[in-house]
Amino acid sequence: MNAPAQQHSEQIVRFSFSQRLEHIVTIFTFTGLCLTGLPQKFYAKGWAQWMVEHLGGIDQTRWIHRAIGILFVTATVVHLVNGLNALLSRRSAFTMLLNKKDFEDCVLQLRYYLGLTDEHPRYDRFDYKQKWEYWSLFLGNIIMGLSGLMLFFPTVFAKVLPGQLIPAAKVAHSNEGLMAFFVIAVWHIYNAHLQPDVFPFDTSIFTGKISRERMLHEHPLELARIEGRSADDDHGHHADASRKVG
Fold first, then answer.
1. Does the CA dihedral 38-182-73-31 come out positive or negative?
2. Per-residue model confidence (pLDDT) at position 235
3. Taking the model in full, what pTM does it have?
4. Which PANTHER family match (predicted)?
5. How many CB atoms lie within 10 A of CB 6?
Protein backbone atom coordinates (compact mmCIF):
# COMPACT_ATOMS: atom_id res chain seq x y z
CA MET A 1 0.00 0.00 0.00
CA ASN A 2 1.46 3.37 -1.01
CA ALA A 3 1.77 6.19 1.54
CA PRO A 4 -1.29 8.28 0.49
CA ALA A 5 -3.54 5.20 0.40
CA GLN A 6 -2.23 4.11 3.82
CA GLN A 7 -2.98 7.57 5.24
CA HIS A 8 -6.56 7.47 3.87
CA SER A 9 -7.25 4.03 5.41
CA GLU A 10 -5.64 4.97 8.74
CA GLN A 11 -8.01 5.01 11.71
CA ILE A 12 -7.60 7.53 14.51
CA VAL A 13 -9.00 7.01 18.02
CA ARG A 14 -11.12 10.08 18.74
CA PHE A 15 -13.39 8.97 21.59
CA SER A 16 -12.28 7.02 24.68
CA PHE A 17 -14.16 4.02 26.09
CA SER A 18 -15.67 6.11 28.90
CA GLN A 19 -16.90 8.74 26.42
CA ARG A 20 -18.53 6.04 24.27
CA LEU A 21 -20.10 4.45 27.35
CA GLU A 22 -21.49 7.84 28.44
CA HIS A 23 -23.05 8.28 25.00
CA ILE A 24 -24.69 4.82 25.09
CA VAL A 25 -26.08 5.47 28.59
CA THR A 26 -27.42 8.82 27.37
CA ILE A 27 -29.12 7.18 24.38
CA PHE A 28 -30.94 4.62 26.53
CA THR A 29 -31.89 6.99 29.34
CA PHE A 30 -33.03 9.77 26.99
CA THR A 31 -35.08 7.32 24.92
CA GLY A 32 -36.60 5.86 28.08
CA LEU A 33 -37.52 9.29 29.41
CA CYS A 34 -39.19 10.21 26.10
CA LEU A 35 -41.14 6.93 25.97
CA THR A 36 -42.41 7.35 29.54
CA GLY A 37 -42.62 11.17 29.66
CA LEU A 38 -44.30 12.19 26.40
CA PRO A 39 -47.36 9.94 27.02
CA GLN A 40 -47.83 11.76 30.35
CA LYS A 41 -47.67 15.17 28.63
CA PHE A 42 -50.12 14.16 25.89
CA TYR A 43 -52.25 11.90 28.11
CA ALA A 44 -55.48 12.67 26.19
CA LYS A 45 -54.15 11.30 22.90
CA GLY A 46 -54.95 7.76 21.85
CA TRP A 47 -51.30 6.78 21.22
CA ALA A 48 -50.35 8.07 24.69
CA GLN A 49 -53.10 6.05 26.38
CA TRP A 50 -51.99 2.97 24.42
CA MET A 51 -48.40 3.39 25.59
CA VAL A 52 -49.38 3.99 29.23
CA GLU A 53 -51.58 0.90 29.15
CA HIS A 54 -48.70 -1.24 27.76
CA LEU A 55 -46.30 0.17 30.36
CA GLY A 56 -48.54 -1.14 33.12
CA GLY A 57 -50.70 1.89 33.91
CA ILE A 58 -50.03 5.50 34.85
CA ASP A 59 -48.54 4.78 38.29
CA GLN A 60 -46.04 2.28 36.93
CA THR A 61 -45.22 4.62 34.01
CA ARG A 62 -44.43 7.42 36.47
CA TRP A 63 -42.19 5.17 38.59
CA ILE A 64 -40.31 3.93 35.51
CA HIS A 65 -39.89 7.58 34.43
CA ARG A 66 -38.55 8.56 37.85
CA ALA A 67 -36.12 5.62 37.98
CA ILE A 68 -34.71 6.42 34.54
CA GLY A 69 -34.61 10.10 35.49
CA ILE A 70 -32.42 9.33 38.53
CA LEU A 71 -30.06 7.35 36.28
CA PHE A 72 -30.06 10.26 33.79
CA VAL A 73 -29.19 12.79 36.53
CA THR A 74 -26.48 10.46 37.87
CA ALA A 75 -24.96 10.14 34.39
CA THR A 76 -24.96 13.95 34.04
CA VAL A 77 -23.20 14.36 37.40
CA VAL A 78 -20.63 11.69 36.44
CA HIS A 79 -20.03 13.49 33.14
CA LEU A 80 -19.52 16.80 34.97
CA VAL A 81 -17.13 15.26 37.52
CA ASN A 82 -15.12 13.45 34.82
CA GLY A 83 -14.89 16.65 32.77
CA LEU A 84 -13.74 18.76 35.73
CA ASN A 85 -11.25 16.07 36.75
CA ALA A 86 -9.80 15.95 33.24
CA LEU A 87 -9.50 19.75 33.13
CA LEU A 88 -7.96 20.11 36.60
CA SER A 89 -5.47 17.30 35.97
CA ARG A 90 -4.69 18.85 32.56
CA ARG A 91 -5.42 15.57 30.80
CA SER A 92 -7.77 17.42 28.47
CA ALA A 93 -8.27 20.94 27.15
CA PHE A 94 -11.64 22.69 27.41
CA THR A 95 -12.44 21.97 23.75
CA MET A 96 -16.18 22.58 24.21
CA LEU A 97 -15.66 26.21 25.23
CA LEU A 98 -17.24 28.65 22.76
CA ASN A 99 -14.77 31.21 21.45
CA LYS A 100 -14.41 33.97 18.87
CA LYS A 101 -13.41 31.50 16.13
CA ASP A 102 -16.76 29.68 16.46
CA PHE A 103 -18.63 32.86 15.54
CA GLU A 104 -16.19 33.52 12.69
CA ASP A 105 -16.65 29.92 11.47
CA CYS A 106 -20.44 30.34 11.55
CA VAL A 107 -20.28 33.49 9.41
CA LEU A 108 -17.74 31.91 7.05
CA GLN A 109 -19.90 28.81 6.56
CA LEU A 110 -22.96 30.94 5.81
CA ARG A 111 -20.90 32.85 3.22
CA TYR A 112 -19.72 29.49 1.80
CA TYR A 113 -23.29 28.16 1.48
CA LEU A 114 -24.38 31.42 -0.17
CA GLY A 115 -21.58 31.11 -2.74
CA LEU A 116 -19.82 34.27 -1.52
CA THR A 117 -16.52 32.48 -0.82
CA ASP A 118 -14.70 29.27 -1.76
CA GLU A 119 -13.16 29.00 1.69
CA HIS A 120 -14.69 26.49 4.11
CA PRO A 121 -14.22 26.77 7.91
CA ARG A 122 -11.38 24.66 9.32
CA TYR A 123 -12.54 23.08 12.55
CA ASP A 124 -10.71 21.87 15.63
CA ARG A 125 -12.03 19.01 17.79
CA PHE A 126 -15.62 20.31 17.78
CA ASP A 127 -17.33 22.75 15.42
CA TYR A 128 -19.72 25.50 16.51
CA LYS A 129 -22.83 23.38 15.80
CA GLN A 130 -21.59 20.58 18.04
CA LYS A 131 -20.73 23.06 20.81
CA TRP A 132 -24.16 24.70 20.57
CA GLU A 133 -25.89 21.32 20.79
CA TYR A 134 -23.70 20.20 23.69
CA TRP A 135 -24.28 23.29 25.82
CA SER A 136 -28.00 23.52 25.06
CA LEU A 137 -28.50 19.88 26.06
CA PHE A 138 -26.21 20.15 29.08
CA LEU A 139 -28.13 23.16 30.40
CA GLY A 140 -31.35 21.34 29.49
CA ASN A 141 -30.20 18.37 31.59
CA ILE A 142 -29.75 20.67 34.59
CA ILE A 143 -33.25 22.14 34.13
CA MET A 144 -34.78 18.69 33.67
CA GLY A 145 -32.91 17.24 36.65
CA LEU A 146 -33.74 20.04 39.09
CA SER A 147 -37.37 20.38 37.99
CA GLY A 148 -37.76 16.58 38.04
CA LEU A 149 -36.47 16.37 41.61
CA MET A 150 -38.87 19.16 42.63
CA LEU A 151 -41.79 17.21 41.16
CA PHE A 152 -40.56 13.98 42.77
CA PHE A 153 -40.26 15.55 46.23
CA PRO A 154 -42.65 18.54 46.15
CA THR A 155 -43.26 18.75 49.91
CA VAL A 156 -39.52 18.71 50.68
CA PHE A 157 -38.77 21.57 48.26
CA ALA A 158 -41.89 23.51 49.30
CA LYS A 159 -40.48 23.67 52.87
CA VAL A 160 -37.39 25.59 51.74
CA LEU A 161 -38.58 27.28 48.54
CA PRO A 162 -41.73 29.25 47.57
CA GLY A 163 -44.54 26.85 46.77
CA GLN A 164 -45.23 28.62 43.47
CA LEU A 165 -42.03 27.06 42.13
CA ILE A 166 -43.61 23.58 42.08
CA PRO A 167 -46.15 24.27 39.27
CA ALA A 168 -43.45 26.36 37.54
CA ALA A 169 -41.15 23.32 37.68
CA LYS A 170 -43.89 21.22 36.07
CA VAL A 171 -44.20 23.65 33.15
CA ALA A 172 -40.40 23.87 32.74
CA HIS A 173 -39.97 20.08 32.94
CA SER A 174 -42.70 19.39 30.41
CA ASN A 175 -41.69 22.02 27.83
CA GLU A 176 -37.93 21.49 28.16
CA GLY A 177 -38.45 17.76 27.67
CA LEU A 178 -40.46 18.33 24.48
CA MET A 179 -37.85 20.78 23.15
CA ALA A 180 -35.02 18.32 23.90
CA PHE A 181 -36.94 15.62 22.02
CA PHE A 182 -37.20 17.82 18.91
CA VAL A 183 -33.53 18.92 19.13
CA ILE A 184 -32.37 15.30 19.20
CA ALA A 185 -34.91 14.02 16.64
CA VAL A 186 -34.24 16.78 14.11
CA TRP A 187 -30.95 18.59 14.74
CA HIS A 188 -28.78 15.81 16.20
CA ILE A 189 -29.98 12.94 14.01
CA TYR A 190 -29.47 15.02 10.85
CA ASN A 191 -26.03 16.38 11.74
CA ALA A 192 -24.71 13.13 13.22
CA HIS A 193 -26.10 10.63 10.71
CA LEU A 194 -28.03 12.05 7.76
CA GLN A 195 -25.86 14.88 6.45
CA PRO A 196 -24.03 14.00 3.19
CA ASP A 197 -20.56 13.72 4.79
CA VAL A 198 -21.58 10.88 7.14
CA PHE A 199 -24.75 9.40 5.60
CA PRO A 200 -26.18 6.89 6.40
CA PHE A 201 -24.59 6.46 9.82
CA ASP A 202 -21.63 7.92 11.72
CA THR A 203 -20.13 5.05 13.74
CA SER A 204 -17.27 7.02 15.32
CA ILE A 205 -19.03 7.66 18.65
CA PHE A 206 -19.68 3.90 18.97
CA THR A 207 -16.31 2.53 17.76
CA GLY A 208 -14.28 5.52 18.95
CA LYS A 209 -12.46 5.57 15.63
CA ILE A 210 -12.57 7.87 12.62
CA SER A 211 -10.64 7.73 9.38
CA ARG A 212 -7.74 10.12 8.83
CA GLU A 213 -9.44 11.20 5.60
CA ARG A 214 -12.53 12.34 7.54
CA MET A 215 -10.37 14.05 10.15
CA LEU A 216 -8.58 15.95 7.40
CA HIS A 217 -11.93 17.05 5.96
CA GLU A 218 -13.91 17.70 9.18
CA HIS A 219 -11.33 18.44 11.90
CA PRO A 220 -8.07 19.50 10.19
CA LEU A 221 -6.85 21.60 13.12
CA GLU A 222 -7.26 18.71 15.58
CA LEU A 223 -5.52 16.31 13.15
CA ALA A 224 -2.58 18.70 12.77
CA ARG A 225 -2.23 18.93 16.55
CA ILE A 226 -2.38 15.12 16.94
CA GLU A 227 0.31 14.68 14.29
CA GLY A 228 2.48 17.44 15.76
CA ARG A 229 2.64 19.63 12.68
CA SER A 230 1.55 23.08 11.67
CA ALA A 231 -2.15 23.57 10.97
CA ASP A 232 -1.19 25.30 7.71
CA ASP A 233 0.62 22.25 6.29
CA ASP A 234 -2.51 20.75 4.73
CA HIS A 235 -4.31 24.05 4.10
CA GLY A 236 -3.75 23.78 0.36
CA HIS A 237 -5.03 20.20 0.35
CA HIS A 238 -8.09 21.23 2.32
CA ALA A 239 -8.84 24.12 0.02
CA ASP A 240 -8.71 21.72 -2.93
CA ALA A 241 -11.05 19.32 -1.11
CA SER A 242 -13.47 22.14 -0.30
CA ARG A 243 -13.65 23.16 -3.92
CA LYS A 244 -14.39 19.54 -4.89
CA VAL A 245 -17.18 19.38 -2.31
CA GLY A 246 -18.59 22.71 -3.46
1. positive
2. 58
3. 0.82
4. NI/FE-HYDROGENASE 1 B-TYPE CYTOCHROME SUBUNIT, NI_FE-HYDROGENASE 1 B-TYPE CYTOCHROME SUBUNIT-RELATED
5. 10
